Amino acid sequence: MNTHPYLRAYMAGILAPSLGLLIALTVFILTRLVFHVPIPLERVIIFPMALVPNAFGIWNVIYIWSGPHRHLPIGFHGALLPLIMVPLGALAAAWSGYLMVGKQGFTWFQAISVPYSLLIPWFIAAVVVYYLIWKYVVRFLNQVLGIE
């Protein structure tokens, strides 16, 4: 019987970001409708909702596929994902005109300015969060599904 380990790995990978994005979408909707924030939040959430769960799923398939040849624990494997996703996301946002690079920092949607001094701490925080999600959540799901 074929147990489809890559399909199970993909599904285990997409669970955590899908739930996280559901919570983020709820916060965005409340922010937009209750607090009347005039920033186009729906544009901010489209990219993560479309790509982040798929990236997690594919990244978990790659982890399972590497099998006995893997040299990194799953937490470190997951912590590498922002190193790929952040530059690609920034490049896509800059190419589409949503992200402008200035002398003092980045400007999103001609409304949100982020100084360069905040980028390093935010990026480190993202790597730490990804490490923890992969170490505890994705690893647990892989074990429950019997693929790790």
Please describe what this structure looks like.
A hairpin with a 3-residue loop joins strand 2 and strand 3 (112-115). The chain has five helices and three strands, in the order ααααβββα. By secondary structure, the protein is mostly helical. The protein has one domain (5-144). It has helices at 5-33, 41-66, 74-79, 81-96, 116-144, and strands at 99-101, 105-108, 112-115. The protein is 72% helix and 7% strand. It has a three-stranded antiparallel sheet with strand order 1-2-3. The model has no long low-confidence stretch (mean pLDDT 86).
Largest sheet features: 3 strands, antiparallel
Alpha-beta classification: mainly alpha
pLDDT < 50 stretches: none
**Topology, number of strands:** 3
Number of helices: 5
Strand order of the largest sheet: 1-2-3
The whole-number mean of residue pLDDT values reads 86
What oligomeric arrangement do these chains adopt?
A: single chain
Helix content: over 70%
Molecular shape = globular
Distance between the terminal alpha carbons, to the nearest Å?
18 Å
User: What is the H/E order?
Assistant: HHHHEEEH
Strand content: 5-15%
Give the total of domains: 1
Radius of gyration: 17 Å
Provide a quick synopsis of the model.
With 148 residues, the protein is mostly helical. 72% of the residues lie in helices and 7% in strands. The protein has one domain.
